[in-house]
Structure formats: structure tokens, C-alpha cells
From TrEMBL:
Lineage, top ranks: Eukaryota, Fungi, Dikarya, Basidiomycota, Agaricomycotina
Protein name according to UniProt: NAD(P)-binding protein
Entry similarity comment: Belongs to the short-chain dehydrogenases/reductases (SDR) family.
Pfam family, one: adh_short
Keywords per UniProt: Oxidoreductase
UniProt organism field: Lentinula aciculospora
Coiled-coil region: none
GO terms for MF: oxidoreductase activity
Length: 239
């Protein structure tokens, strides 16, 4: 009996999400691409299964998984590409973030946990020897000694994400299940160029993410949970 691999991607933006989706389609996957307001017709036209999801709502995340299970099957690849920076009114005053925005940031942290829980349930239900991989889109904020204080909420989200990926990857490795925190870095291993107008940088890094994520999916030997890659999509190697 033939097996068709299935991927569920949270965060269907024009940079990372859509490029990863296209790569997985090219590799023979059925791909569900989720966002808050997906363009259903356009996605279906391009061979993708659209899913509406609110990343701050646990019930919505669970519903997204159920939609994919019902219409495509259990996903063996889950990509979590969700995050939001809540700008404090005063750049150097992180506690000026409103309690409402801080609560929303916390809901996004819960969202990564619920997504990982649901993914684990799917992975464990698949009896085929296909790769079972959860990839989260990270950044370097959790590892910087003095990150800019205005990024407090985003840094908190990514710190939770990194912690979950580390612990889950160690806990479920014996089951052949992988969890990764994948981060684009600059040529020196530091922050990538974050200027929207940069010829090469984060805001046009979709193809690099696609190549890096496929490396994590297709690797015969599991890569490190904290996986860093450069603008060409290849693993960063410190010199």
C-alpha cells in the first residue's frame, strides 16, 4: 500500500511559509497551509489545502489539525512559523507593553505547545517509516546576551519555542521523532540582515528556509535540535 506524506504548515506568509510549502509539494507531499485568512481559491489552484487558524487560540489549532486529518490524513511533517512582536510604546521601557498585548504574546507561546502536542499525536499514529519532524521557525533572541529590550515579547515567544524543541527532541528521539528550532543566521553566525530593502536578508529568505527545512526532513541522521543555516539554505558551520 502506497504512502503519501503530508505536511501541515502554520503561518502561510509570502516569505517562509509559501516557499516551504512549494518545496514540500515539489518533493511529493500533500501540503496544508494555514493562516488566519487564507486565500482558499488561490491556494487550491496551486495544489495546496487551505486551513484557517488563529495561532492564539488553542481550540482553533486543534481544529486545524482535525481538518487536515479528515481531509488529507495524519501529517508527518509540521512546520510552526508563527510569532508576533508587540512593540512597547517606549523603546527602552519593556514594561510599557500593555497587559493585553503581553497576554496575547503568552497565548502564542501556548499555541506552540498545543501544536507540538497535536503533532506528537499524529506522529505516533503513523505506522509508516516516513520522517516525523516538527520544525519551528526560530531566531537568535533567546541566545543573545543583551538583546534589544523592545523585543521582549518576541524573545519570550522564541525562548519558549526553543525550550520546547530542546526537551521534546530529547524526549522522543528514541521513537524516531524529531523537533527542531531552525534559525537563519548571517555569514558570521550572527543576526541576519533585517532590513526589508536588503538584497539578501531575512525578508527574502523564503528559498533558504525551504532548503534548510527540507534538509531537516530528509536527513538520514537527525540534525541538532538547534539548527542554524545561512542565506544559501546550508547549515552554518563555525570556523
Amino acid at each position: 500500500m502506497s504512502f503519501t506524506p503530508i505536511a501541515l504548515i502554520f503561518g502561510g506568509g509570502s516569505n517562509v511559509g509559501i516557499h516551504v510549502a512549494r518545496k514540500l509539494l515539489k518533493e511529493g507531499y500533500h501540503v496544508a497551509l494555514s493562516s488566519r485568512n487564507p486565500d482558499n481559491d488561490a491556494l487550491r489552484k496551486n495544489g495546496l489545502f487551505p486551513v484557517s487558524v488563529d495561532g492564539t487560540n488553542s481550540a482553533s489549532i486543534k481544529k486545524a489539525f482535525q481538518q487536515v486529518r479528515t481531509n488529507l490524513g495524519e501529517p508527518n511533517i509540521v512546520v510552526y512559523n508563527v510569532g508576533q512582536h508587540f512593540q512597547p510604546p517606549s523603546t527602552n521601557d519593556p514594561l510599557s507593553v500593555s497587559s493585553e498585548d503581553f497576554a496575547k504574546s503568552g497565548e502564542l507561546e501556548l499555541g506552540i505547545f498545543v501544536s507540538a502536542q497535536e503533532a506528537l499525536a499524529s506522529f505516533r499514529s503513523i505506522k509508516h517509516s516516513t520522517p516525523k519532524v516538527f520544525i519551528s521557525t526560530g531566531n537568535l533572541l533567546p541566545f543573545l546576551k543583551e538583546a534589544p529590550v523592545l523585543f521582549m515579547t518576541l524573545a519570550s515567544q522564541k525562548a519558549t519555542m526553543a525550550t520546547l524543541m530542546d526537551y521534546a527532541n530529547r524526549a522522543y528521539a528514541t521513537e524516531g521523532i524529531r523537533f527542531h528550532y531552525a534559525t537563519l543566521v548571517g555569514p558570521d553566525g550572527g543576526l541576519p540582515n533585517l532590513s526589508p530593502s536588503a538584497e539578501v536578508g531575512f525578508f527574502n529568505s523564503g528559498p533558504a528556509h525551504a532548503e534548510a527545512y527540507w534538509t531537516l526532513v530528509s536527513a538520514e541522521t537527525a540534525k541538532n535540535w538547534d539548527y542554524r543555516f545561512t542565506y544559501d539554505g546550508k547549515e552554518f558551520e563555525s570556523k
